[in-house]
Backbone:
């Protein structure tokens, strides 16, 4: 039993918790559940018996609170609700990770979707830890409730999860039993909810902390203590919410399950009477498919972001044309043009029998307000159709904007980003219009050390005489990237030669300290 | 001997016909420098037409000067929050430098194609969509037919097309090939005005208009783009900062 689920006055004091370390059972002994022989889900595996105990912590105000502990950590007396510093003090070498509730939630959402697809039409994520499945009339498909529970636990074990399952007539009773029953699988016969949850602690009823504290003051420990109490005084002392929770658990108040609705991709399909093979006929069918798909999208207020056109030939092979759009769209002309750009890769063979267009990804697309100019003077602002068209030609990776990166090293100060981003600018230090892919070594450099621009050099076999220079602009190596850059220095100069060419050159090293560079000169960019 | 004056409506009709043949261009973009604008056929660059720019020599410094000249033109064409599409085959542009010629990174869309034909196709798509502020394309070889296509696409999409003709062979100026561009420019970077102290003055270019439709060629030395893409005339000699000691040092 977890310390935090005990009534407040029965919870061990910090001092006792501290002693628990000495009194903790040795990790070689199996766990409670393994000794009870409750099936493979709780089998002790050497992997976690020998692993470092691991806890997840969450920062609450100034303190870190343990939110979850692995079985071996629980064996050592750690558990949710502890202060992380105390846990660290109790168990040396503890493996501490920050809790990521949003990832847990995402996993539960996926599980709920899987449940809706595979097990039952109605499933819901009940809280941060559990799912509710409405099993009415579905378990016989899996060979009865026991078999269903076994399959469920096996499924979760393959995912690396330890599952506890309770089947009861009410959601509240199932919620309580899944958390507080001693066995991992509890199946309550119809009408047995009251008897099943009576011995459980009050925390099983999803009561508020205030109600739990008040109940502890009155000496009410288990659900069974509440049942014979007169309801009026009980509601006055513990709150009406307590009565509601109790009624929900024993079936006197309804608690409907709001099922999650899985997303079904909009799809349009044409099965052709005669196989087709010419470009014209394929284009005709594409036009029909796009029209159907757009109707389906409009009915649901969606716009397509990714589409998959499947073409099935008479010999049964399938070909796919997959493409995306930069922004959700329902524009038939645009989609037909995008498909037309790609469909020439399809080999019709002896003919195409089935064509199916699926919007594999769709985003909400509702009416958009007109721009402030009311569509007056300027050009249409929406670049997304053009970007789709261009990326259909050369691929989406070849279409980009350039965004600044926090770095003083010139070649690292730019990064390619997507075409619909809106990056900000750079600092106003003068920068060249073109940057050589790699800095090129200069020869025969005549320069005064340490901080004057060179007087002459030769580059690409041509001698340059320098008439003016500006600099240096010192760029230090980024020691956090590579060991070689710890002391490295580049001194950049802008120079102008006698022919009017303006270049950006740098010297490795600061000209004083030999560890900063070898004093070689390089040309890096060209100003206009 | 003329006895009867032509009827007024006939003259008006002829005026309309004449105007219809002449008005195919869009709004023109003036440089704001009278010595250029007065010599351009429509007092600026046609905003719905093809313009070509090339470096005066295969040297990288002239190439960079032509790049910045293009960047400044594109920035001023797209000044009203338009996006510029810059299509290249080998990406060696440095966006911070273009930013300093007025092309801010959120209004500059690059596309890197594999070959010149793809660059032209991208430019044509961009022009015909009509949503861009300007289109810049860098090509090595381009046929007369392709320039004609670009010119038509620019007129249809009502978007300026700026074509950067890169040097391919050392001895052959890219502007020696025929083209249907409205204007053709050749840019050379020349020495800047010597300052009275250490450092480099505002860069200068020799801007040569090789050919223009309905006008004559000319050549000027100008000061390079500022950070909004505007060129400037060098200050007349009597307004120059004293640079005598620098000139003496250079002669020594």
Residues:
């Amino acid at each position: 039993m977890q310390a935090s689920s005990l009534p407040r006055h029965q919870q061990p004091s910090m001092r006792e918790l501290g002693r628990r370390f000495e009194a903790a059972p040795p990790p070689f002994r199996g766990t409670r559940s393994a000794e009870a022989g409750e099936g493979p889900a709780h089998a002790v595996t050497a992997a976690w018996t020998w692993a470092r105990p691991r806890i997840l912590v969450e920062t609450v105000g100034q303190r870190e609170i343990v939110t979850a502990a692995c079985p071996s950590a629980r064996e050592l007396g750690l558990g949710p609700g502890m202060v992380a510093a105390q846990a660290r003090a109790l168990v040396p070498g503890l493996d501490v990770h920050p809790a990521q509730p949003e990832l847990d939630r995402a996993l539960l959402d996926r599980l709920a979707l899987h449940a809706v697809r595979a097990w039952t039409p109605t499933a819901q994520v009940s809280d941060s830890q559990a799912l509710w499945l409405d099993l009415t009339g579905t378990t016989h498909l899996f060979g009865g409730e026991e078999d269903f529970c076994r399959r469920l636990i096996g499924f979760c074990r393959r995912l690396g999860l330890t599952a506890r399952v309770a089947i009861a007539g009410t959601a509240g009773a199932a919620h309580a039993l899944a958390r507080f029953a001693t066995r991992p699988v509890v199946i309550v016969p119809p009408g047995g909810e009251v008897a099943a949850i009576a011995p459980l602690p009050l925390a099983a009823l999803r009561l508020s902390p205030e109600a739990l504290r008040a109940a502890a003051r009155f000496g009410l420990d288990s659900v069974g203590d509440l049942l014979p109490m007169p309801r009026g005084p009980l509601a006055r002392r513990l709150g009406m919410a307590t009565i509601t929770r109790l009624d929900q658990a024993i079936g006197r108040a309804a608690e409907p399950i709001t099922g999650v609705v899985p997303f079904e991709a909009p799809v349009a399909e044409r099965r052709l009477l005669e196989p087709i093979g010419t470009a014209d006929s394929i284009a005709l069918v594409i036009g029909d498919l796009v029209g159907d798909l757009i109707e389906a999208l409009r009915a649901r207020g969606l716009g397509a972001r990714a589409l998959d056109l499947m073409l099935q030939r008479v010999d049964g092979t399938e070909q796919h044309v997959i493409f995306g759009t930069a922004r959700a769209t329902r524009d038939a002309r645009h989609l037909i043009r995008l498909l037309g750009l790609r469909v020439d890769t399809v080999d019709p063979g002896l003919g195409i029998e089935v064509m199916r267009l699926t919007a594999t990804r769709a985003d909400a697309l509702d009416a958009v307000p007109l721009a402030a100019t009311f569509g007056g003077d300027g050009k249409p602002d929406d670049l997304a159709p053009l970007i789709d068209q261009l990326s259909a030609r050369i691929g989406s990776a070849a279409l980009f904007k350039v965004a600044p990166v926090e770095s003083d090293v010139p070649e690292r100060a730019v990064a390619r980003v997507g075409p619909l981003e809106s990056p900000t600018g750079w600092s106003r230090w003068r920068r060249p219009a073109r940057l050589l892919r790699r800095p090129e070594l200069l020869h025969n450099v005549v320069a005064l050390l340490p901080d004057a621009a060179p007087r002459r050099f030769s580059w690409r076999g041509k001698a340059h005489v320098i008439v003016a220079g500006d600099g240096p602009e010192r760029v230090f190596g980024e020691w956090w990237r590579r060991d070689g850059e710890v002391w490295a220095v580049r001194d950049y100069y802008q120079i102008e030669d006698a022919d009017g060419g303006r270049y950006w050159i740098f010297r490795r090293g600061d000209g004083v300290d030999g560890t900063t560079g070898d004093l070689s000169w390089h040309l890096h960019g060209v100003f206009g | 001997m003329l006895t009867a004056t032509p009827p007024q409506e006939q003259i008006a009709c002829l005026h309309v016909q004449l105007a219809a043949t002449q008005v195919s261009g869009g709004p023109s973009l003036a440089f704001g420098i009278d010595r250029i604008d007065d010599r351009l056929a429509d007092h600026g660059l046609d905003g719905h037409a093809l313009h070509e720019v090339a470096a005066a020599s295969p040297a990288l410094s002239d190439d960079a000067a032509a790049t910045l000249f293009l960047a400044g033109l594109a920035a001023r064409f797209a000044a009203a929050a338009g996006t510029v599409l810059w299509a290249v085959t080998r990406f060696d542009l440095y966006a911070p430098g273009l930013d300093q010629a007025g092309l801010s990174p959120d209004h500059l869309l690059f596309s890197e194609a594999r070959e010149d034909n793809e660059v032209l196709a991208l430019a044509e798509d961009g022009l015909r969509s009509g949503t861009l502020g300007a289109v810049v394309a860098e090509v090595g070889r381009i046929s007369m037919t392709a320039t004609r296509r670009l010119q038509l696409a620019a007129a249809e999409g009502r978007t300026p097309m700026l074509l950067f003709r890169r040097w391919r062979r050392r001895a052959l100026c890219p502007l020696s090939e025929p083209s249907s561009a409205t204007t053709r420019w050749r840019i050379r970077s020349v020495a800047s005005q010597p300052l009275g102290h250490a450092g480099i003055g505002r860069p200068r270019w020799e801007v040569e208009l090789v050919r223009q439709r309905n006008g004559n060629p000319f050549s000027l030395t100008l000061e390079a783009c500022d950070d909004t893409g505007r060129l400037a005339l060098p200050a007349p000699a009597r307004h120059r900062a004293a640079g005598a000691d620098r000139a003496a040092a250079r002669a020594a």
About this structure: Residues 60-77 of chain B form the longest helix (18 residues).
